[in-house]
Write a structure and sequence with these properties.
6-stranded antiparallel beta sheet; 36 strands; signal; transmembrane; 6-stranded mixed beta sheet; disordered N terminus; Meckelin; membrane; alpha+beta
Length: 952
């Protein structure tokens, strides 16, 4: 009768339910006192006459000891009891009817008896369920003949054996496979209930039994590959129910259709608009759950609180804001296997989940699909891949299962326990302007794990995670790829220009392996800068617009897109390492010579009384040593202090809480919220903003104040060269280099303190010639392209020294040990020859070797190239006063600070901790500075012929 009644109800309402995805939200509490609730249809149905709904609104009954009078319940007197038909009050007696008796309460004409009486049913009949009448027995003698029938449910259900042929009583029927721990269990619960549920659902159309099969199917991770199993019932109903599926009742909706995932997740049927501002209407998602017991009986349907989504014990921080629109939520806890067994309800609770929203007229429920990662088809896990067309979506979930793993061999305790390892609610917002605030159907990603008795005995601890992620699909990745593609062409052209310039400076005309290698390294450098710049722009753009928006304009990109950006950062850093290694190698292998302009002076010397003689004054080498030490000291000098840069960056981000601006929620605050994860993309944006701000402030203080009014180490080095009467001749390439003109305006500097002070005073009073290379100018520093003959002479002079150094130098440094007189003379002669040659060249004293001085054209400055051909005549280009800093760290500040930022971002991506990232960056840069200093000193000693022991 119940089945027929519900089928009629279904036929009445089927035209109102065009799609089972969306239904009007009616809970049992919404039913009136004269209606009862139908869970599968989510409808309130009017009770029969003379009945009212029960307290739970799931049936129509009268309260205990009440009778129906005029369609209402009326209490019976205290000395009477209500009849079974709820119409009469009978005198209370001690009569107890037997199992084969019916209880007679009325006469044949319908009038009530004074008290209840018992009548034995005739042979071949048995009492009805309500014990109001005798019904014919379905089997002979009202017993269950084991020859033709079978007892199920512990002997309470007798089923004709022919009706069970599709579900044989075999061991494989009750096997549950636990793939995570590679264990199979013959389930005691399955053995006792599965075949009974199958019979009651398929043959007898019992709604509760069909719901129980859905629960068992969810427990078995939706496997239907066995001949007999609960999931087989749903094989023909793998689709969203519609009005044409009235024949499927009472089988619940458990599966979506194969290949429907991409369609289902991109529907635009949810009409509610959500707000990103807290406290506004629809600023939180509202989820509703229909709950069922293991045996399929309905518990209730009500709002789902986030706390029900998790097995973590205790109170969670901010759990009520987990469904906040536009923000991410994450909570992870560790729970022991023993605690897992002890917590939760004895039987698992099963959930069908819905999103509640208002369509302007009434509250609606939209079915939320589940993506269970553990679903296995053959040997493949389709839900672990990213191809949505292969996903298999389902409807029912549970948190903890301690029943299916109870073995028939050991029924006292479970052999395996299934638990929900991670659950993630994923919500995608629509990006169209006209659909602002609308969302696509949310879905939930589930991953289960298993616990064995061994885990329990060892006290193993397991992680449980609950995550909520909102994102909006956009063209960011497309724009990134497009930007990288367009900029790659520019980078390629720029790399070609730089490689050509470098080849020209090195005197290479044809394309050889060296040229190809230089081009590859140059491409690495420029591509690293390009990739990193695109990532930084993306991070800062997302940070600014996500935090500043008042309407839903942008949400955080998915974690997959953030992973792509992280990979780009890693690639950019690795490419940048190539450039920095080349930079250090080039700077530690330059040819450098200290040109001494000091001339020996003839001084009078009195040997005997009355006798005057003259002798040449020896030129001191200590001036060259002093300049060499100053050069060694400024090799790793930078415009900013890196330790201070890192300390202030970490201080602002970590101590003052600016890193909390990168929390995955639209608000900006300085306090850390544990349940709001730091978005790596926003974190990268904050690092860029803070790091750049600190750098700009530090650079302005250094350049505008410190170097202008206090100390400029680069300019001081040039001044020291002038005071020491030493020029610095640097060849960073075969035919290209830098020149610092340090010739003293006084003609000599190897003198006493009084004379030196007098010279400085004259220079202050403008009583001497200018320091510049050209008369009447102050230009002391130049870029230069040297003639090939000069380079040839340089190599010829230095060639003999290489053989001497290979014998006399220890540990690749220039330390003279036991040098014989011949080699010592050769070293001195080589030094003097080179010094004389360079002074003559600089004084235009060589007939076939000369140079000209001019400024670079705008194009040459812009592209960093020189049009002049250095084969016959050199060219000295007037620079800005410190072009020579290109062969030390000071002139490569842009490259170094970009590398610092890349390294900081790289370690942040790896560790997700700005403090560790800052420490690693500082340590590595310190190590690189030490390497640069060490090899720089060795090269300086080798090329200037100065013993390294004099370099402090």
């Amino acid at each position: 009768m119940e089945l027929l009644y519900l089928v009629i109800i279904l036929n009445v309402v089927k035209f109102c339910l065009p799609n089972g995805e969306i239904v009007t939200y009616i809970a049992p509490k919404n039913c009136s006192d004269h209606e009862f609730y139908v869970p599968s249809l989510m409808l309130c149905v009017l009770c029969d006459d003379r009945k009212k709904s029960s307290i739970d609104r799931l049936s129509c009954i009268c309260d205990k000891n009440n009778r129906f009078v005029n369609k209402v319940c009326e209490p019976c007197p205290s000395n009477t009891i209500v009849s079974l038909d709820r119409l009469h009050c009978l005198k209370r007696t001690n009569v107890s009817c037997g199992s084969k008796d019916i209880e007679l309460e009325t006469e044949v004409n319908g009038s009530a008896l004074a008290s209840k009486s018992c009548i034995r049913c005739a042979p071949g009949t048995q009492p009805s369920v309500d014990r109001a009448k005798c019904l014919p027995c379905p089997v002979t003698n009202c017993t269950c003949p084991l020859t033709t029938h079978e007892l199920l449910l512990d002997g309470t259900l007798c089923v004709f054996r022919a009706n069970l042929t599709s579900w044989p009583d075999e061991k494989d029927t009750y096997i549950v496979e636990y793939d995570a721990v590679s264990v199979t269990v013959e389930s005691d619960y399955m053995k006792k209930h599965l075949r009974a549920f199958l019979h009651e659902c398929v043959k007898m159309k019992h709604r509760t039994a069909c719901e129980a099969l859905g629960n068992l199917c969810a427990i078995q991770m939706y496997k239907d590959e066995r001949k007999v199993g609960p999931c087989k019932v749903f094989k023909d109903y793998r689709r969203i129910p519609t009005s044409s599926d009235a024949d499927r009742w009472p089988i619940p909706w458990l599966y979506y259709g194969e290949g429907d995932a991409s369609i289902v997740l991109n529907r635009k049927k949810i009409t509610a608009k959500y707000s990103i501002k807290p406290g506004k209407h629809n600023s939180n998602l509202q989820l509703v759950a229909a709950r069922y017991h293991l045996n399929g009986s309905f518990i209730n349907i009500s709002e789902l609180r986030p706390v029900e989504f998790h097995l973590c014990p205790g109170l969670w921080s901010g759990i009520e804001s987990a469904f906040r629109f536009g923000a991410r939520y994450i909570h992870t806890c560790s729970i022991s296997a023993k605690q897992m067994v002890s917590q939760g309800t004895p039987e698992p609770i099963f959930y069908d989940l819905y999103l509640q929203y208002n369509d302007g007229k009434s509250n609606m429920l939209y079915a939320i699909p589940l993506l269970v990662r553990n679903i296995k088809v053959g040997t493949i896990y389709p839900n672990k891949g990213r191809d949505t067309s292969q996903w298999l979506l389902t409807r029912r979930m549970f948190l903890l299962d301690k029943f299916s793993g109870v073995s028939t061999k050991i029924p006292s305790s479970p052999t395996v326990i299934q638990y929900l390892k991670s659950i993630k609610l994923v919500v995608q917002a629509q990006r169209e302007i006209e659909n602002e605030g609308n969302i696509y159907p949310p879905f939930i990603v589930l991953e289960y794990d298993q616990i064995t008795n061994e885990n329990i005995s060892l006290g193993d601890v397991f992680l449980v995670t609950f995550t909520v992620e909102f994102y909006m699909e956009n063209d960011i990745l497309h724009y990134v790829d497009m930007g990288l593609g367009i900029l790659s062409g520019c980078v390629f052209i720029w790399s070609c220009i730089h490689t050509w310039s470098e080849s020209k400076r090195c005197g290479r005309i044809t394309i050889d392996f060296w040229t190809v290698g230089q081009f590859a390294i140059t491409c690495c450098s420029h591509f690293a800068n390009m990739i990193f710049a695109v990532c930084l722009l993306l991070a800062v753009h997302t940070l600014v617009f996500y935090k500043a928006q008042s309407v839903v304009y942008i949400l955080l990109p998915s974690q997959d897109l953030e992973a792509v950006v992280n990979r780009y950062v890693v690639v950019a850093f690795l490419l940048k390492i190539v450039e920095l290694v080349r930079l250090i190698w080039k700077q530690t292998s330059i040819d450098i010579f200290l040109v001494d302009w000091e001339k020996p002076r003839i001084l009078p010397n009195q040997k005997q009384i009355g006798t005057m003689t003259t002798q040449k004054q020896t030129v001191s080498i200590w001036r060259s040593y002093f300049v060499a030490n100053e050069w060694a000291e400024i090799q790793t000098k930078r415009k900013i202090s890196l330790p201070m840069q890192l300390v202030f960056t970490v201080l602002l981000l970590k101590i003052y809480g600016l890193e909390n601006w990168a929390a995955a929620e639209p608000e900006v605050h300085l306090n850390r919220i544990s349940y709001r994860p730091i978005s790596q993309l926003l974190g990268l944006g904050m690092i860029v903003v803070v790091f750049s701000t600190v750098y700009i402030v530090q650079w302005l203080v250094t350049v505008a104040i410190y170097e202008t009014y206090i100390k400029n180490c680069i300019q001081q080095f040039v001044d020291i060269c002038s005071l020491a009467n030493i020029s610095v001749f640097i060849l960073s390439a075969e035919f290209f280099g830098y020149y610092i003109h340090g010739r003293s305006a006084h003609g000599f500097s190897d003198t006493d303190m009084e004379s030196l002070i007098g010279q400085l005073r004259k220079e202050e009073d403008n009583m001497v010639r200018h320091r510049g290379l050209m008369p009447g100018t102050e230009n002391q520093t130049f870029e230069m392209t040297v003639p090939s003959s000069l380079r040839t002479y340089y190599r010829r002079v230095m060639a003999p020294l290489n053989s001497i150094q290979s014998k006399q130098i220890s540990s690749s440094s220039f330390r003279i040990k036991k040098v014989d007189k011949t080699d010592m003379a050769r070293i001195g002669q080589a030094y003097n020859n080179m010094n004389k040659f360079l002074t003559a060249f600089l004084d235009h004293a060589l007939k076939d070797l000369d140079y000209e001085i001019r400024e670079k054209t705008f194009v040459e400055k812009l592209l960093g190239i020189e049009y002049s051909d250095p084969l016959d005549k050199g060219v000295f280009f007037i620079d800005d006063g410190h072009s020579f800093d290109q062969v030390i760290f000071y002139g490569n500040e842009c490259t170094l600070i970009i590398f610092d930022l890349m390294m900081l971002s790289f370690f942040f991506v790896l560790t997700e901790n700005i403090v560790l990232a800052g420490i690693f960056t500082g340590l590595i840069m310190k190590a690189m500075s030490i390497i640069r200093t060490t090899f720089g000193k060795r090269n300086l000693a080798k090329k200037t012929l100065i013993d390294e022991r004099f370099l402090i």
